[in-house]
Write a structure and sequence with these properties.
It is a single chain. The radius of gyration is 24 Å and the shape is elongated. The N and C termini lie far apart (about 60 Å). Helix 4 runs antiparallel to helix 5 and helix 11 packs parallel to helix 13. By secondary structure, it is an all-alpha fold. It has 15 helices and no strands. It has a domain of about 80 residues: Alpha Horseshoe (Serine Threonine Protein Phosphatase 5, Tetratricopeptide repeat), CATH 1.25.40.10.
């Protein structure tokens, strides 16, 4: 949920409606918030916004969109509905990056201390391959939230990685790895180890690369991307036999780049 309370005077019945919403008593919340809207009570934009959250929670997305739009029409400088509209757009497989970016920036324009808009913008800028802007938005998220979460470390680490800031990427990805291990999020553990291995390869720390990816392969022998990266590291160390072995395993299991590099080795 975007926000826990309004930080401006609004009618107590709107606050009551939101209290029922927080308790997951959607029926009472809907009755109260609808009555508040019909009576046009003070803080009407909040009533629309809270009811929009309710409709979103019960998966009545069209009604949620209508209420979020009504909230912005009632008070155009109210930022939070723009954020919720952006999140709804992100659930569409064919969402347009520019429209989501526009909505998130509107949220920031009117609610500049709302951290999650910065975080989502950072993710959008990764998709747009504008990695330095992504890093900037992730840092603003951290400034306003103080939230050193697993999700934060992963996404900022990813942005650092693609920006070529490997030292900073490694720091974030190691922090992400420890948090993912604590939460038994083994999919994220895998992704962190792959990127950390690739960073070690790119920075010519080849023994570290091999050790990281061997650890991953020992625990997940079907992670064939690890064989590819480890095969490259073996090649850089001059061990062509181990390189060919790993690249062949990766190639046989759908890693096309491994096949390309394997043919290059064979020609030589």
């Amino acid at each position: 949920m975007s926000i826990l309370k309004a930080d401006e005077p609004i009618d107590s019945f709107i606050i009551l409606g939101f209290d029922y919403l927080k308790r997951n008593d959607y029926e009472k919340a809907l009755l109260i918030l609808t009555e508040c809207i019909e009576q046009k009570l003070k803080g009407l934009h909040w009533a629309y916004f809270y009811r929009g959250l309710l409709f979103k929670l019960i998966n009545k997305i069209d009604k949620a969109i209508s209420d979020f739009l009504s909230s912005t029409f009632t008070l155009p400088t109210f930022g939070l509905p723009y954020f919720e509209l952006a999140l709804i757009k992100l659930t569409d497989e064919k969402f347009d990056l520019n429209s989501v970016e526009f909505l998130l920036k509107k949220c920031i324009e009117y609610t500049p201390d709302f951290p999650f808009a910065y975080f989502e913008l950072g993710k959008i800028y990764i998709e747009k391959r504008n990695f330095f802007s992504a890093i900037e938005f992730f840092n603003k998220f951290l400034f306003y939230s103080g939230n050193y979460s697993m999700d934060f470390y992963w996404h900022r680490g990813l942005a650092f990685y693609y920006a070529g800031k490997f030292y900073l990427a490694e720091k974030d990805l190691v922090d992400c790895l420890y948090l993912a291990l604590n939460k038994n999020n083994f999919d994220l553990v895998t992704e962190c180890l792959l990127l950390l291995g690739d960073i070690a390869l790119k920075t010519r720390n080849l023994d570290k690369c091999i050790n990281l990816l061997s650890l991953l392969i020992d625990n997940n022998p079907k992670e064939f991307r690890a064989y590819f990266i480890r095969g490259l590291a073996f090649y850089e160390l001059g061990d062509t036999d181990l390189s060919k072995r790993d690249l062949a395993i990766a190639c046989e299991n759908g890693i096309d780049d491994a096949g390309v590099f394997l043919k290059k080795i064979m020609k030589n």
